[in-house]
């Protein structure tokens, strides 16, 4: 049985990402499928998000969450529900927040 680990982070857009300028930093949420009861595997989540065009991850380890598929119906946000279902089917999903993070401040 699987559950989805919801891992908030910041990351940098890499060259293969066409939507965001190279090197631009954004807040992201990684949804990573793991076996039920496992601790969050940040390295695995980073590898999965890397394939979506992100690197140089900084995880907020104080705000992680694991959600079992039978609890998806309790989530109110439709984008999160889509990401949860995508991660369940495809091992991972990434939500990228549109506004870049100002690196000067």
Protein architecture, described:
The protein is built from two helices and five strands, in the order ββαββαβ. By secondary structure, it is an alpha+beta fold. Strands 1, 2, 3, 4 and 5 form a five-stranded antiparallel β-sheet that branches. The chain is globular. It starts with a strand and ends in a 5-residue tail after the last strand. The mean pLDDT is 92.
Helical content band: 10-25%
Helix/strand/pairing category = alpha+beta
Low-confidence stretches: none
SSE order: EEHEEHE
Radius of gyration: 14 Å
Largest sheet, described in full?
Answer: 5 strands, antiparallel
Count of helix runs: 2
How much of the polypeptide forms β-strand, as a percent range?
35-45%
Q: Tell how many strands the DSSP assignment holds.
A: 5
Brief characterization of the structure:
The chain is an alpha+beta fold and 105 residues long. The protein contains 2 helices and 5 strands.
Provide the descriptors you would attach to this structure in a database record.
single chain, 105 residues, five-stranded antiparallel β-sheet, globular, alpha+beta
Topology record:
Elements (H helix, E strand, L loop, with lengths): L1 E12 L11 E11 L6 H9 L3 E6 L5 E3 L10 H13 L1 E9 L5
Antiparallel strand pairs: 1-2, 1-3, 1-4, 2-5
